[in-house]
Amino acid sequence: MKVEFHGVRGSLPIPAKNFLEYGGNTTSIEISSKDFQLIIDAGSGFRNIQIREETPTFLLFSHFHHDHLQGLPFNSALFSKKNQIHVGSGLVDRTGLKEALSTAFTPPLFPLDLVNHNLAFNIMNFETFQAAAIDFFSIEKFPLCHPGGASGYKILIGNRSIVCGLDHEYGLNKEQDVNFHKASRNSDLVIWDGMFTNSELTDKQGWGHSSIEQAVAFSSSANPKALFITHHSPQREDRELNQLAQDFLPSRVRFAKENEKFEIL
Ligand SMILES: [Zn+2]
Ligand SMILES: [Zn+2]
């Protein structure tokens, strides 16, 4: 099984030369094996995912902020009759999901009425999505602390587990933190929203994001085999990420890089 980050930036794509090492696209993560592709979120990095025609594709939304959605119409596989993409979200039901996508992608905000454009899309309730995926992976959801809400996921593939906690503000809601921690304990990989540093967090409480230092503490208490910090601030240049990695990160905690592949054997 392979995990690939096609977008690692929070809030805004940042196509500038001091950001090229880690990448400028916003959140889109592909988890795949030879049998399926599961994509979490469709930020601008979604455009670059090669969606296979011969295996099923599952697309899951954590929430609907622009940086998790803006790439959706720009992957040509959406318009191919050969693909049938199962689309779901733990945050809302089928009606809510249709509404969120329709709101973002109809005039005057977008040239087409995307959802009614005969897409290769099968928009589902979360329970139907779980049932459609069951031959390939099982998936559980848990609520995250984020303005407007967001859904975290635990994905189990055979005896391997990946936990995605985007977007989340750690330390504001004890019950949600405990659930996230429980899901992550001894997992193979945790994906963490590390938009801020602790010092930046002091005047950004309530913005819905966690810190890099919190990721390190979480990793030592929850003990995943690996933890990838993503959703990097659009202000955070490569030089600063490299310095922070050197100063703060133990070997099993890393900053996610666009196009880097992580194999879980
Ligand atoms: Zn975000
Ligand atoms: Zn968000």
CATH class assignment? Alpha Beta
Please name the CATH topology.
Metallo-beta-lactamase, Chain A
Q: Counting H and I runs of at least 4 residues, what is the number of helices?
A: 6
Low-confidence stretches: none
Any overview of this molecule?
The chain is an alpha/beta fold. It has a single domain (2-263), classed as 4-Layer Sandwich (Metallo-beta-lactamase, Chain A), CATH 3.60.15. It has 6 helices and 13 strands. It has helices at residues 94-104, 126-133, 174-184, 198-201, 212-222, 238-248, and strands at 2-7, 28-32, 37-40, 57-61, 85-89, 121-123, 138-144, 150-157, 160-165, 189-193, 227-230, 253-255, 261-263. The structure holds zinc ion (2 copies). Residues 63, 65, 146, 167, 208 line the site of one zinc ion.
SSE layout:
Blueprint (H helix, E strand, L loop, with lengths): L1 E6 L20 E5 L4 E4 L16 E5 L23 E5 L4 H11 L16 E3 L2 H8 L4 E7 L5 E8 L2 E6 L8 H11 L4 E5 L4 H4 L10 H11 L4 E4 L7 H11 L4 E3 L5 E3 L2
Parallel strand pairs: 3-4, 4-5, 5-6, 9-10, 10-11, 11-12
Antiparallel strand pairs: 1-2, 1-13, 2-3, 7-8, 8-9
This protein binds zinc ion (2 copies).
Give a concise summary.
By secondary structure, this protein is an alpha/beta fold. It has helices spanning 94-104, 126-133, 174-184, 198-201, 212-222, 238-248, and strands spanning 2-7, 28-32, 37-40, 57-61, 85-89, 121-123, 138-144, 150-157, 160-165, 189-193, 227-230, 253-255, 261-263. It has one domain (2-263): Metallo-beta-lactamase, Chain A.
Supply the key terms.
265 residues; 24% strand; six-stranded mixed sheet; alpha/beta; globular; binds zinc ion; Metallo-beta-lactamase, Chain A
